[in-house]
Amino acid sequence: MSEIAVFRQNLFRVSETFITQQAQAMRRYAPLYLGRFRYGDGPVGAQSRVLGDLWRRAALARIGAQMLTRDPAPYLRLLGDRRPALVHAHFGVDGVYALPLARRLGVPLVTMFHGFDATLSTAAFLCSPAWVNYPLFRRTLARHGQLFLCTSDYIRERVLAMGFPAARTRVHYIGVDCGAIRPRDPQQETPTILHVARLVEMKGTEYLLRAFALLSPTRPALRLVIIGDGPLRGRLEVLARALGIGGQVSFRGAQPYARVLEAMRAAMMLVLPSVYTPTGRVEGLGMVLLEAAATGVPVVGSRVGGIPEGLVEGETGLLAPERDAEALAARMRDVLDDPDRRAAMGGRARAFVTARFDLHRQTAALEAAYDALIDRGVGP
């Protein structure tokens, strides 16, 4: 079995399980996770190597220097005598840092764009030391990377607008494991609305709270469960109390993946009211929508970014304009007030995701793309 390097600067973030799910689903390639730091435990049995292990002393300063220079030598030291057949970088920012390594190894580089890397303004990138090299070397990545994958048609359009070559830029949905995520029994449903997101502006949680406040006066048993953490949590908790819904809203923080799926199985719907931000951040697709749909739960989202690609409006879920709490409440009310429609939408959502976003089918297609790149070689 050939080995590939899965490159992500900050490995195993709780909000990025889609990276390890894709890698662990491969049948013919073995992943070696490569990055700067681990931010959590990797999959059982997974192998990972990070610069934080290489440099025990003055690690931050030495990693900072590597960030500025993009010198591949430290990663080559981590690899030792291992020679992956290909490097797969997640996020365009990481592609810029993985490119020198792939070129030194003489292997193809696959870069996958997920969202902010295709939408955030150049000024915002230049304000971050961790990201500053991205706008500076993005054109170099576009010239020398072998394949650019995008999580949605929306993201592909944005990547092409940045100057990436159309012939080497394609949509690839990561997908969800429809075999492992079984459809829920309707009897498991409880009077809860679920929101799973990092608590940042882009996720639009403020508008969900305001919409829920419009619904809750006539539904005292209804609960809003929010899973996720982030810099806006304190402000959102204050807002919930100010809206008079503090007792009906539960902020549960970041949760293990299994607990998230448990919450989905109990929900009447999942809501992701994402918004465009002034810096350009926007939802690339919304993996949580696909996971909810695979569970047989209808979804309500904003008509922004790649979200419309993750549902069939009126069939598997509903869409609302961004930053419009009243319109969002109306869509949520449509799902709440019609149990038969809710159950039918959930069933169609499961069928839709199984047909279009199955993880194992998508991963097989990814491995076929790896085969083609490796067989063709990198070239001079």
UniProtKB/TrEMBL annotation:
GO MF annotations, alphabetized: glycosyltransferase activity
Gene3D superfamilies linked to this entry: Glycogen Phosphorylase B
The keyword Transferase is assigned to this record: yes
Stretches assigned to the Glycosyl transferase family domain: 187-350
Keywords, alphabetical: Transferase
Annotated ranges, domain Glycosyltransferase subfamily 4-like N-terminal: 71-178
PANTHER family per UniProt: SLL1723 PROTEIN, SULFOQUINOVOSYL TRANSFERASE SQD2
Name this protein carries in UniProt: Glycosyltransferase
Organism: Gluconacetobacter azotocaptans
